[in-house]
Amino acid sequence: MMNNRLITTNRLLAYLIAFSLICTSCSDDGVDTPSEPAPEIPPITTFEMDFESFPEDPGGRQILDPKAGARWAQARIGIAVWNTLIGVAIIVPVAAFKASIAQSPEFIGDNTWQWTFDFDVAGIAHQAKLRGTLVSDGVDWSMLLSKEGEFTDYKWYAGHANATRTEGSWTLNFGPEQDKPFLQIDWSRNTDNTVAEVRYTSIDPDNVGIGSYIHFGINEETPYNAFYDIFDKTNDNLVEIEWNRETNEGRIKNPRFFEDENYHCWDSDLENVDC
Fold first, then answer.
1. pLDDT, tens digit (0-9, with 9 covering 90-100), for 39-78
2. Sign (positive/negative) of CA torsion 21, 24, 26, 32?
3. CA angle centred on 50, ends 250 and 274, rounded to 5°
4. Are 116 and 94 a contacting pair, CB within 8 Å?
5. DSSP character for 55?
6. 28 or 82, which is more confident?
């Protein structure tokens, strides 16, 4: 009889210990207690490329005018083409990303935090859920977007950032209507953003130019501290553009246009000069 009572008592103690362990690892609503604070969202510069930093012509000359300085004009045209191709397609995800930064997250368990919020695009209401999951080498991100009567929790993009938010990537889809891959975004930066790079690569399986990319960066080098590399996979042509953000002086290498492998320079007035 004593043995039976001892066995029963031991079992009861085991159940109590197990129950107490469960309770200490869970909150009152059954969600795990976070072991770490919420991750910080990477800055918008890791997602939205700066197409406005390239020097504008203060004289208002048409960039297609051959007298306007063909070298600067060629650089401007290549950047503008990518801006046009990408601009409309990323309006909604960029708006969602920008809106998320001002929100406060909620812990939803499984090492995951969620930012839930509403935002407008051209006066049209959308709903968003940005999720950040802590993993061994950083944070996995995903953005679920909804639009009443059209789509619900569509994963518009996902990504990964290292623990210090100094490098990572995003994979962006076209949207719920086409629902296929659109862009691979790779980024890196130092903590004070004096050196930063972001590259958009076409991953659309139906695009003959899949693998084409535009790569933008800023740095602390001299005499040129900003650049765009534009690769056209269809024509196997790499355009290299470098300029100084303070003086606007720059240079371009475009083998297909200039029919050579040399840099061609412009001055602070955007006029052609010898390199």
1. 999 999 999 999 999 998 766 655 555 445 689 988 999 9
2. negative
3. 5
4. no
5. P
6. 82
d(CA 85, CA 68): 24
By CB atoms closer than 10 A (0-12, 13-18, 19+), residue 28 is exposed
What SS3 string covers 10-52?
A: HHHHHHHHHHHHHHHCECCCCCECCCCCCCCCCCHHHCCCCCC
Location of structure tokens 């990319």? 213
pLDDT in tens, 181-212: 999 999 999 988 899 999 999 999 999 999 99
DSSP state letter for 244? -
Helix (H, G, I), strand (E, B) or coil at 75: helix
The gap between the terminal CA atoms of the chain, to the nearest Å, is: 100
Whole-model pTM: value is: 0.85
CA distance 239 to 275: 17
